[in-house]
Write a structure and sequence with these properties.
mainly beta; 13-stranded antiparallel sheet; 1 helix; 6% helix
Length: 247
């Protein structure tokens, strides 16, 4: 995808922000929360331009996109993917589609994130789709999510098992902490551990912030550092989440 076309995608998404609908931003994390889009609501999580340094590899993501649609009460469909522009390192330079997937996410127990007592519990499962010029093969994943909200902030815990596109078992454990929900700009942090049993383990930490511009628009920023095997990685994430009714 050309940079001109990427800019066009960003412009269209920004125009959509005029529709109303509450959006609980869940960028810039790798994990998720125990909430789903409302019935007939579309949420778009967009990273217009993001940068990753992974060992000797330098990659620009433009864009990173997640589409969520509430197709029935308590359940949403999710489609995601990233257009990666390899800038340097091994492999073929240029653009390709990576991290593509199609999932179903449902709330198993309504709780704090649904304005009810106790923790919210959700599940997410689906297919890891093949990419373009990379991410060959098909995989699958299933995850459990627990979220709780207090006056001082929120915690979200994720545990996921998957079969990678290379047909390897993988385990993902994740913890997210957010500042007070009532704050317009709330600090956030994330820690995760990912173990590909045919390769290496990755340990990652992210710090950032979410600015709730209005009910249906949120802007996020995150800095992530990670170590995988014998090399380190650093990533800059910047994005926007919007929501609107499809009715």
């Amino acid at each position: 995808m050309s940079m001109g076309r990427s800019a066009g995608v960003v412009a269209v998404v920004l125009l959509l922000a005029c529709w109303c609908g509450p959006a609980q931003a869940f960028r810039p994390f790798d994990g998720t929360d125990a909430a789903v889009a409302d019935l007939h609501q579309i949420e778009i999580e967009l990273g217009p331009v993001e940068y990753l340094r992974d060992g000797a590899q330098r990659t620009l993501f433009a864009p990173s996109t997640v589409f969520n649609y509430g197709f029935t009460p308590g359940w949403e469909g999710v489609i995601e993917g990233r257009v990666a522009h390899a800038l340097s390192g091994r492999g073929v330079l240029g653009a390709g589609l990576i991290d593509a997937g199609a999932f179903l996410k449902g709330v198993l127990r309504e709780g704090a994130l649904q304005d009810k007592a106790g923790p919210s519990v959700a599940t997410e499962f689906g297919i890891l789709l093949p990419g373009i010029r990379d991410d060959h093969g098909i995989g699958a994943s299933i995850a459990g999510v627990l979220s709780q909200r207090w006056g001082w902030g929120m915690i979200h815990l994720n545990a996921a098992a998957s079969l990678t596109r290379q047909q390897h078992p993988d385990l993902f454990l994740d913890a997210i902490i957010e500042g007070p929900y009532a704050w317009t700009v709330r600090p956030v942090a994330e820690l995760f551990y990912d173990r590909d049993f045919a390769a290496t383990a990755t340990r990652s930490a992210l710090v950032g912030a979410i600015w709730q511009v209005k009910d249906d628009v949120a802007v996020d920023f995150g800095l992530r550092g990670a170590r995988s095997g014998d090399h380190t990685a650093g990533e800059i994430r910047l994005g926007i989440t919007i929501a609107f009714s499809a009715r």
